[in-house]
Write a structure and sequence with these properties.
single chain, about 280 residues, alpha/beta, Nitrilase/N-carbamoyl-D-aminoacid amidohydrolase, six-stranded mixed sheet, 6 helices, about 20% helix, globular
């Protein structure tokens, strides 16, 4: 599968303008042979809302108007798209990502790990298990931004069979370590492809750093945009490589299999509930 990671600015509170940019970009990518085009977190309306009341009018159901519009595009062009959006469900708002293909909505994900930043101060933590979806023979898991700093999330998706994890993100200053170290680590730890797609520009006083990156199953960087400029990062995903977990480096002497060599019986504390207070939510800032 040929993928394209679109590092771009987002027009705050202008869903139509952002979806028009998506449509224009995806149409152009078809001539490049792209089969999956990935856009940043909260792409439809932006991220830096200051209250739930301000953000709620920009939330949509899934499926809903935004996903239906992109589904029509994907049906016409026989392609797949991932983008971030705000999902409204009753009186709750989720930071979500969707995967859409020629047959419509393939799947969605609600951000599970929430930093105290931007709209995530007011969204509800994701309430559904991690899930892997299939697109053109490639098994895809979705995470969003802060999720990438929790190795448990990528590991669960890998155990569910993900070949590729996509991470729409809105990294601000301070997030460069994620781009420079964590993405490669998540790929290497799990023997998968990992595509992190960040935005650029400034919104409501916050700037975004770009640094989108695609890493391969051994953890090597396949491509990156190392600054906050607009651009499209392309890469090719081979699911056979991601599914080959056992690597023989020296026959009979050096073999690596990070799935088979796990010791889950020793990992109990990871799954124990904790009593730590969440900064900004459970205690004063």
């Amino acid at each position: 599968m040929k993928i394209a990671c679109v590092q771009t600015d987002v027009e705050f509170k202008n869903v139509n303008a952002n979806l028009s940019l998506l449509e224009k970009t995806v149409r152009a990518e078809i001539s490049q042979g792209t089969e999956l085009t990935i856009f940043p977190e909260c792409f439809t309306a932006g991220y830096c809302f200051d209250s739930l009341d301000e953000a709620m009018p920009f939330g949509e159901s899934i499926p809903g108007p935004a996903t239906d519009r992109v589904a029509r595009l994907c049906a016409e062009l026989k392609t797949f798209v991932v983008f971030g959006m705000l999902e409204k469900s009753g009186d709750r708002l989720f930071n979500a990502a969707v995967l859409i293909g020629p047959d419509g909505l393939v799947g969605s994900y609600r951000k599970i790990h929430l930093p105290y930043l931007g709209v995530d101060r007011f969204t509800t933590p994701g309430d559904r298990p991690f899930e892997v979806f299939e697109a053109a023979g490639v098994k895809i898991g979705m995470l969003i931004c802060y999720d990438g700093g929790f190795p448990e999330a990528a590991r669960v998706l890998s155990l569910l069979g993900a070949d590729l994890i996509v991470l729409p993100t809105n990294w601000p200053p301070g997030g460069s370590y994620m781009a420079e170290f964590s993405i490669n680590s998540r790929a290497m730890e799990n023997g998968i492809y990992f595509a992190a797609v960040n935005r650029i520009g400034t919104e409501n006083g916050f700037s975004f750093i770009g640094k989108s990156r695609v890493c391969g199953p051994i953890g090597a960087t396949m491509g990156s945009i190392d600054d906050a400029s607009s651009g499209i990062l392309r890469a090719e995903i081979d699911p056979v490589v991601a599914r080959t977990k056992r690597v023989v480096r020296v026959p009979g002497k050096h073999l690596i299999d990070r799935m088979a060599d796990r010791r889950p019986e020793m990992y109990g504390p990871i799954c124990e509930p904790h009593s730590l207070k969440r900064p900004g939510r459970d205690e004063p800032v």
